[in-house]
Amino acid sequence: MKISAQDYIILAILDAMETNTYSRSMRQLCNVKYSLTGKSPYIEFSRKDGKDLEPKDVFWLGFFVREYL
Questions:
Q1: Cβ-Cβ contacts under 8 Å for 24 (sequence gap 6 or more)
Q2: Which of 21, 23, 36, 63 suits a disulfide with 16, CB 3.0-4.6 Å?
Q3: What is the CB neighbour count within 10 angstroms for residue 66?
Q4: Nearest-CA neighbor of 23 among 57, 67, 66?
Q5: What is the pTM of this model?
Q6: Which residue ranges in the chain fall short of pLDDT 50?
Q7: Residue 20 has what pLDDT?
Q8: Ramachandran bin of 11, using left for φ above 0, alpha for ψ from -120 to 50, beta for the remaining angles
């Protein structure tokens, strides 16, 4: 899953993934790649081998990230 957004939104996602307990579990389920340079900052999540990523995991990440904006 790739999210293209303004850099402050990408930074909020990264901050949540460092400080929020539920969001930190996403790092255990996914590889995270991001870029804040260029015209289109993005963050990309790819499932780690052997890990199950469910739609509810992505929902809850978004739910908690809104507290960082």
A1: 17, 18
A2: 23
A3: 9
A4: 57
A5: 0.84
A6: none
A7: 86
A8: alpha
